[in-house]
Amino acid sequence: MDFSETAERISQKITSRGHQADKNGIETKLKRLVNEFGVPAAEAERTVLNELAREFSITGFQGSGGPGDQKILNQVTNGEWVTVEGKVVALTSAPSPSIAQAGILADNSGAMRFVVWSRANAPALESGKWYRFESAVVDQYKGMLSLKVHSGTTVTEVPHEAALKPAITPIHDLSPGVACIRGKVVQEWEATHDRILQSGLIADETGGIRFVLWKEEGRERLSPGGVYTIFYGTVDEFNGKLSLTLNSATTVPEEGDIQVNTGSSSFEGAFVHLAPGSGLIRRCPVNGCNRVLSRQNYCPVHEIQSQYQYDLRIKGWLDNGTETREILVQRGETERLVGMSLDQARELAENNPLGMDEVFMRFREALLGRYLACQGRVIENRMLVSGCEILHYQPEQLADLLNRAGGSL
Fold it and tell me: What are the phi and psi torsion angles at 360 (to 5°)?
């Protein structure tokens, strides 16, 4: 594509205002915007003209990006070139050498991710400060909008005295992007990757969402049962399921409690498998950890623990003939289902040669082959059980089925 005619047109506009512009430099900028960043030619011309206008303090060019063109964050759309102002509320590690900085930008309408390309020659942004971004590009990935700062973007720090007033979003209404929530940590799960510091379920009155906290210096785990206000967490979507990443978020512990929505899913089936890690287990006693210890009392984070906390749980599978579902049952429902309290399980393990294996076998004997009706929240084919009942044999139902079968013959 020949940019010489466009460069000449821009140069003449600048010259008409009494300034000299380098035509070759203008053409180089146009090529970079169009060829490297995929900017439409008309938008590239406007961007370069606006940049030169600011450089020479020229006013009056049409579409020069004045205050009337500025948008708030919840008004921007995919593919748009925008001017916005916002506060850098978080800086995150750059995932690639081509990225100089990444983080979260917020105003009183909402928040979104931003990326500063290394070639942008933008000033280093500082967390907690407000900036104006002129001619930035909005793009979208997996339903999440982000702001891209490139070589045609002008970034300036702006004074802003008023504090942000972030809106809390009910968990049921979350969508991909950046959000603030208030919720209770109702489940903590075993880490499936050595880079995960913590994962589990956080819920409010409207629903629940899986959360992930990746290992990072200075990051602390959330306490199970604790209530938190989480500002500017990142909501991602994978296979139609949402998850909340907390590494970009500010997490504030709160007083009080939340009557969480425990979920309305139900499933009935035969208990066909009791998974390892069921029965009497030992948990790491380090504050906020609560991980299940190995047989050697080893915690993957805090190593060998001589002092530990006992707990009961059931991990297994239900099968209804057409579908299987993993269930996870915490202590309260576990005691009721198997008819064994935590103290009884500890006494059994301490006074039996098989130790904790004896408790596991008692659980298997009590559950295997029984039909269960469970209710709770389903996340990634795992039901976090809030209530469960053993379905007992009903002679009259069997007689009725036999009579119907005989009648059809």
Answer: -60, -45
In 3D space, the residue among 241, 234, 258 whose CA is nearest the CA of residue 104 turns out to be 234
Strands 227-238 and 177-189, bridge-based pairing? antiparallel
pLDDT 10s digits, 33-48: 888 877 777 778 888 8
Q: For residue 88, give the nearest of 120, 111, 118 by alpha carbon.
A: 111
Question: With 70 as the cut, is the pLDDT of residue 60 above it?
Answer: no
Tell me the pLDDT tens digit for each residue of 174-203: 999 999 999 999 888 777 777 888 888 899
* Arithmetic mean of pLDDT over the chain: 87
Give the CATH number of domain 171-254. 2.40.50.140
Specify the pairing of strand 309-319 against strand 303-304.
Answer: unpaired
Structure token pair of residue 251: 């997490």
Name the superfamily (CATH) of residues 265-391. Answer: Nucleic acid-binding proteins (2.40.50.140)
What residue ranges do the domains of the chain occupy?
Answer: 4-55, 74-157, 171-254, 265-391
- pLDDT tens for 254-285 read 988 888 876 678 999 999 999 999 999 998 88
The answer to whether the Cα torsion of 172, 178, 180, 183 is positive or negative is: positive
Fold topology of 74-157:
OB fold (Dihydrolipoamide Acetyltransferase, E2P) (2.40.50)
In 3D space, the residue among 215, 251, 201, 198 whose CA is nearest the CA of residue 90 turns out to be 251
Give the chain's length: 409
